[in-house]
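Workshop exercise sheet. Pairs work together: one partner reads the sequence aloud, the other fills in the structure field after running the prediction. Swap roles for the next sheet.
Pair: D.N. / O.F.
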Amino acid sequence: MDIKPQPNHQAYVAALRRMTPEQRLSKAFELGDFARALLRDGLRERFPTASEEQLQALYLERLERCHNRDF
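Structure field:
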């Protein structure tokens, strides 16, 4: 498997190391919020005629698929 080049990875890790634990946790929540917003926007684009209720149902269904499960 080819690994995608990550030219900024070292700078990213260095930036994380300079953050306090609280700042890293805050960044994690921020990134989670951003990912959920992208999911919602993508669903709106993919299903432009869906009602808000339908979009919410799709959103929740897709989120459920993303969560790890113990089988």
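Discussion prompt: The chain has a mean pLDDT of 91. What would you look at next?
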